[in-house]
Amino acid sequence: MTYQRVVVLTGAGISAESGIKTFRAADGLWEEHRVEDVATPEGFAANPELVQRFYNERRRQLLSAEVAVNPAHVALAEFEKKFTGEFLLVTQNIDDLHERAGSQKLIHMHGELLKMQCSYSGVVYPIDTDISTEARCACCGLRSGLRPHIVWFGEMPLGMDEIYTALEHCDLFIAVGTSGNVYPAAGFVQAAGSVGAHTIEVNLEPSAVQSAFSETRYGLASIELPRLLN
Ligand code: BJW
Which residues are listed for Zn(2+) binding in this entry (predicted)? Predict the structure, then answer.
């Protein structure tokens, strides 16, 4: 590969073949749940039990035997290992499948399902069991303190300075399995394109920001990504 500074953005589509539901598909998570109820700070304040249950169920599923990495996760980890230039993987996903595949330089811009957070101090703790609304936070001792370590609508995504620095210097940007409906991630292609980077969309179907990419490849991530990176 002739490129020296590569940024890859992944979305729910890369984990779909691992058995994790996407958001906006006909049978996706947003068909079963109202976004405002489970993915906003206001929804959490109004009904913390409902929100904890939503993430507890997803955490249990992630840790179940049915979920495993697929060839797209593996292709990214193998690419990072052999690539001699600068590499950054940015995922909107809250699962840990990139880590399981061996990816190292990784930012979870929308948080992580296997972490919880104190609402008051911001301290983050690992968690691999259900979070109960009865549990007391280890740092503030309050029952209302603990929340999933997830970036909800209206909240600031994580690692933005590092992400934009990498985008401003990249010569290749690849987006995989994301519908391009949620900002700021949907705007990354424009940030990379504006500094002259080659931009590639790998997705099942054209995304909402498909026209901003210089190249598009449509098909399963598990097929298209190994083909692109090997
Ligand atoms: C396959 C496949 C296979 C399937 N192979 N492909 C108006 C304009 C612009 C912005 C705003 C606006 N009004 C409000 C905003 C901001 C808002 C926003 O974007 N709203 C939109 C709805 C318009 N954004 C925010 O509030 C964000 N914060 C923010 O903006 O802070 C201010 C700020 C300003 C400036 C700089 C920086 C910050 C926070 C967004 C938080 C998103 N949170 C969620 C839920 C939490 C995580 C969780 O519960 O899991 O994150 S929403 C949900 O959507 C989740 C995802 O990470 C995110 C993106 O979804 P994704 O990954 O694209 O999934 P899908 O389902 O949409 O698409 C899957 C794709 O895969 C499809 O295209 C399939 O075809 C494809 N596919 N199988 C390849 N096998």
Answer: 118, 137
Mutate to test the pocket of ligand 1, among 21, 58, 182, 227 (most ligand atoms within 8 A of CB): 182
Alpha-carbon span 7 to 169, nearest angstrom: 9
Domain hosting residue 186, numbered range: 1-19+69-110+157-230
Do 91 and 134 reside in the same domain of the chain?
Answer: no
- Model confidence over 69-94: pLDDT tens digits? 999 999 999 999 999 999 999 999 99
57, containing H or E segment = helix 48-62
The reply to whether the predicted model has a pTM over 0.95 is yes
pLDDT in tens, 32-80: 899 999 999 999 999 999 999 999 999 999 999 899 999 999 999 999 9
Residue whose CA lies nearest to ligand 1 atom number 51: 110
